[in-house]
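Hi L.,

You mentioned the student needs an example of a multi-chain input paired with its predicted structure. This one should do, with 570 residues in total across all chains.
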Amino acid sequence: MILVLEILGIEKSYRVGFWRGRRRRALQPIDLSLAPGESFGYLGPNGSGKTTTLKILMGLTRADAGSVTLFGRPHEEPSWRHRVGYLPEHPYFYDYLTPVEYLDYVGRLFGMPSSERRARSRELLERLGLEELAAMPLRRCSKGNQQRLGLAQALLNDPELVFLDEPMSGLDPLGRHLVRELIQELRGRGRTIFFSTHILSDAEALCDRIGLLRAGRLISVGRLDEILHVDVAHMEVLVSGADRALQGGPPEGTLQLERVGERLRLEVEEARLGTVIRLLEEHGGRILSVQPKRQSLEEYFVERVAGSGEA
Amino acid sequence: MKGSAWGRVLAVAFNAYRESVRERVLYNLVFFAIVMTLSGTLLSEISVGQDDKIIVDLGLAAMEVFGILIALFIGVGLVSKEIEKRSLYPLLAKPLRREELLVGKFLGLTATLLVNMSVMAAVMFATLYFAAGEVDLRLLFAVYATFLGLLVVVAIAMLFSSLGSAPVAAVATFCLVVAGRYADVIRNMTSIIPEAPGQLVRVLYHALPNFGNFDLKAEVVYGDPVVVADLVLMTLYAALWIALALGLATLAFRARDLP
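Structure written out for the whole complex:
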């Protein structure tokens, strides 16, 4: 199987200070690969090196060392550019153009014939809810709509591999939903997706694998279910109308108790689960759900990024 | 779906042209140039027998001054402004080489200048025709020479624009254009100041584009002959400077990391 993307030991540092005499490391050597059809989430706090990695992959910045291959060919060969789509972080497009004009310009750079440019632009503008703004100068479009146009230009050539840098940035809930759908659709069509994000729920919903970056170092890479270990020793019970059962304090075996509106959420030892549920029901409580306590991506992120642990 | 390099260059050129014609500042500059040319008819009223010379002088000067301003204003922003605003990011991830972008931008601004010069020249010719009843078509040689000089200014502006920010590029281009305008003074410096080091003066002279070479105003206004061989040499001189400036701009831009 030919990997869609293979990164071997790329690293980057910038010269800083008045005389540019000092070097600040933006990326420690990074190794990473993506298989065809994979959806990969690139996570990390601000300044961790996500955008730098993407800029190196897109040829906007040069790595100090290491190598990149795309579709099995060296990065230096330009053929991959026809097969890749890229949405930069906080994209800016020429504000004197309309969305249709901008997409037409991008289509010309891909060498697309005019009929194909028109058809593909129309299709994407419609898909991204921009059809009514198609002839409006971009200077009058909102940030969210410019972000949608950014996605449209990234998908214009129907790329096999899509790099999205913070694709949800500046979008309202409707826009986010639309983009989530679009990414799911791309996954369904076997496209490979590499996206950086701060929104962890998006990564949980959309990624097969994630990579966590901290201070320029890739501290863990893996499938979500490998990284977020399911701790079956704890169970989570959601119950309503159980106030009477708790008058004498939390039932034995309860590790954590939290009120969520009208309901209660209890974290219970697995061995005591049956006893706790019986007690709650006997006192008029209605069990709404019981599920294993699973570490969320957010908890994992906070633990690994804010904490001291490293892979 | 591969597309040719020329297709991409022309796409960039068309967009650069579209950008400049949608800039309001461009129209203001062209408007002032036209006003300046038309004011020649008023000045000619107070200088008996010199009507056409004053109109030609003012018209050509307006073309040069406002052409330089247009070349400077737009030229210095062609690369640096796009890097600052990050509008290049999505484009350079497409099958577009950096040198194709530079050449496309240069051609786009060349087209803008060509249209502007044509409008200004048409106004000058119309003014001359109504004031003097005839038009000397040799004026076109002077317009052509001015146009070549402006293309060199654009290429130099793009070189500095590829190296640094728009304000720095504007100042550097302006200084080089002014120095180049007085290149002949530098060449003759040793005859004015005999102590001046001759070697240094020669190096300095050759390191500057001599914008005096693109000035045919005196020849045209005073009816001196314009030799075709000189026009050919002038064209080659401009082409050499444009190639040099764009070549250096390409090297600088290729080596530049986008922030």
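You could point out the following to them. The mean pLDDT of chain A is 89. Residues 14 and 283 of chain A are 64 Å apart (CA to CA).

Best wishes,
N.
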